[in-house]
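[09:14] KT: can someone run the structure on this one? pasting the chain below
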Amino acid sequence: MKDDKKMDQAAALRNKMKRKVEHHVHSLPPRSELHRGRNGKMKWRIPLTYVRFVVLIVLILAVLFVVIYI
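[09:31] RB: done, C-alpha cells below
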C-alpha cells in the first residue's frame, strides 16, 4: 500500500515536470530566427595575458637592440 502511494506521487511529479518542459520548449523561437541577425563582423578578443607577453618581448628586444648597437 505504501509503495502504491509513492509510485503515484512520483508519477504525478513526473507528469508535471514533463508538461513544464514541453511548454518551455514550445515557447522558444526557431533556431534560424534566433540567429538570423548574427551576420555582423566577428570581433577578435585577445586575452590580456597575451598582450602583456607581447609587450614584454618587445621591451626586451628594444633593450637588447640598444645594448648591442650603442
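[09:33] KT: thanks! The two ends are 95 Å apart (CA to CA).
[09:34] RB: yep, looked fine to me
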